[in-house]
Amino acid sequence: MNVIFDNIDTFLRGFGGTLTLLGLTTLFALPFGLLLAAMRVSPVASLRATSTVYVEVLRNTPLLLVFTFFSVIITYISGALPFQVAAVLALTIYTAPFFAEAIRSGINGVPVGQAEAARSIGMTFGQTLGLVILPQAVRSVVPPLINVIIALTKNTSVAGAFFIFELFNVGREVANANGNAVVAVFLGVAFFYLIITVPLGQLADHIERRVAVRR
Amino acid sequence: MKRRFLTVGAAAVAVAFGLTGCGAPGSATSPGADASDAPAEGEGPYSLVVEESPEFEEGTTMAKLAEAGSMTIGTKFDQPLFGLRAPSGKPEGFDVAIGALIASKLGIPFDSIEWTETVSANREPFIQNGSVDAVVATYTINDKRKEVVDFAGPYYVAGQALMVLADDETITGPEDVRGQQVCSVAGSTPAATIEAEYGAVVVPTDVYSKCLDPLRNKQVVAVTTDNVILAGFVDQNEGEFKLVDGGATFTEEPYGIGIAKGDQAFRDFINDTLEEAYDDGTWARLFEATAGTVIENTPEPPAVDRY
C-alpha cells in the first residue's frame, strides 16, 4: 500500500485530470443532451429526424472511434485541436445522446394528458415543455442521469490514450516504476474511481427515494 | 393535439469516419535477410540451429522445458524492431530472435514456442505465476523489478533519445525541452525520466506511433523513448523527423530476460547462451537481421551481469 502514498502526488494529479474531464464534459453534454431530447419530442419533423439520427449514430459508435476522430483524423481535415479540447469534445459528443435518452424517457413518463391540457389553454410548445413537462420529468430522470455520469466517469479513461493525463495513466506510470507492487497500484487506481462513482450512486439512490413520483 | 414521440424509424446512416490506416509502426522487416557474419545454416525465421535432444540435470527448468518440447515466452506485440506481431500472428524483432535463440538451445524449434503478449504492467505477474517461462520484452533491468523477478542478460543496452522535426534547430539536447510538451507512452520509463529529470510536460498516449501527428502539427516539440524505436520512425518517415544530436542517448536501459525469482540454474543457462552467441557472432547476426535494419552500426554486445 506504501506505493500509493509514495506516489500520492501522481495519483492526485491523475485524479484531477479525470475530475476535470468529468466536470467539463457534464457541463457541456447535459445542456446538449437536453436540447437533443427537446428536439426529439418537438412537433417539427425535421428536428425530430435530425436528433434521432444523431442520437442513434453516436450512441452506437464506439467511444474509441469518436476519440480517434477528434484527436487524430481531424488534424487532416481542419488542423489540430488542443488535446484537452479534443478530449472534452469527443466525450461531450458521445455522452450527450445518453443524456438525451435519459431525459426523453422522463418526458415520456409524464402522462400525455398534461401536455394536452397545457396546449389546450394556449401554451406554446416551449412553455408546455419548460413549465409543465420538464419539472415533472426531472424528478424521474435524476437517477438515470446520474447513471450516465457514472458511465462517463469510467469512459474518461479512454482519454488516457489520447494525450490526456488521467487516472488510468497514473496506474500505468506508477506500475511501470514499481514492478514489485503492480497489484496495489491498480487497486489504488480503482479506489480513486470508486471515490467518484460510489458517492454518485448513493446520491442517485437518495434522490430516487426523496423525489420519486408515485403514480 | 397529439404529441408524437417515437415515430422516426431507425435511420441508417453510413458514417464516413474515413479511418485511414493510422501510420502503424513499420515492421522490423523480414528477419533472416542480410545476415552477414555468422553462418546461418539453421532453420526458422532466424536461421537458428536447434539442439538435438540436449541433456540437462534432472529437475531443472531446462530439463522440464526440453522434455516438454515447447515453452512460453512473453514479449511485446507492439514494439517495432523488438517485438511486433506480424500478419502471420507471430511476433518478430530482436526480442523475438533472442527468445528463439534460448529456445533453440533447449531443443525447441521456433514453431513450438508459444508467444504471449506482455505489456509493461503484466510482466512481473506473468513471471511470478508461471504463465510464461521467460519474458523478453524490452524489459529494463532495475532494482525494484529484481525484488520480484530475476534477470538474465542484459542482451542489449538501449538509451533514451529525443526525436524532433527535421528542421528544428532549437532543441539540441534534453535540457532544451524544460517546460515544453513532449509526447511519450504513459507509464514508460522514458516518460518518467524526461518529466522528473528534465522538467518536460509529458503528453501521454498509449502507443508511440500516435505521437507522430502531434509532432507534425507542432502540438508537442519532441517525442522521446528509446533510441531504437525513434530510429525506426525516422527511417519510416523520410525527411520529416530527426534524432536530436545525431541520436545521442542520455540514459542507459539495459534490456534483460525476466525469469522466475531464484531460478539460478536457468539464469546461468541463459547467460551462458548469450555469451556463446556474443562470441560466435550469432548475436550480431540476429541484431542485424532485426533492429540493425535501421540502426546502422551494430553495437558491441553488453557484458552479462551475473549479479
Structure description:
The complex is a heterodimer of chains A (215) and B (307). Chain A has a single domain (2-211), classed as MetI-like fold (Orthogonal Bundle). Helices cover 82% and strands 0% of the residues of chain A. Chain A is built from nine helices and no strands. The N and C termini of chain A lie far apart (50 Å). Chain B has 307 residues and is of the alpha/beta class. Chain B has helices at 61-68, 94-105, 123-128, 143-146, 189-196, 212-216, 227-236, 264-280, 282-289, and strands spanning 71-75, 78-79, 83-85, 91-92, 113-117, 134-140, 149-158, 160-165, 181-185, 201-205, 222-226, 241-243, 253-260. Residues 1-38 of chain B have low confidence and may be disordered. Classes of the chains: A mainly alpha (215), B alpha/beta (307). Chains A and B meet through helix 3, helix 4, helix 5, helix 6 and helix 8 of A and helix 3, helix 5, strand 10 and helix 6 of B.
Short description:
The complex is a heterodimer of chains A (215) and B (307). With 215 residues, chain A is mostly helical.
Question: How much β-strand is present in the residues of chain B?
Answer: 15-25%
Largest interface: A-B, 48 and 47 residues
Return the average pLDDT of chain B rounded to an integer: 83
Main pleated-sheet profile of chain A = none
Strand and helix order of chain A: HHHHHHHHH
Order of strands across the main sheet of chain B? 5-1-6-13-7
Rg over C-alpha atoms of chain B, rounded to the nearest angstrom: 22 Å
Q: Extract low-pLDDT stretches of chain A.
A: none
How many runs of DSSP E, i.e. beta strands of chain A?
A: 0
The CATH C-level class name of the largest domain in chain B: Alpha Beta
CATH class of chain A: Mainly Alpha
Count all strands of chain B and give the number: 13
Derived from helix and strand composition plus strand pairing, the structural class of chain B reads alpha/beta
Q: Quaternary state, please?
A: heterodimer
Alpha-carbon distance between the two ends of chain A: 50 Å
Q: Count helical runs of chain B.
A: 9
Shape of chain A: flat
How would you describe the shape of chain B? elongated
What is the terminal separation of chain B in angstroms? Answer: 85 Å
Q: What fold name goes in the CATH topology slot of chain A?
A: MetI-like fold
The CATH H-level superfamily of the largest domain in chain B is Periplasmic binding protein-like II
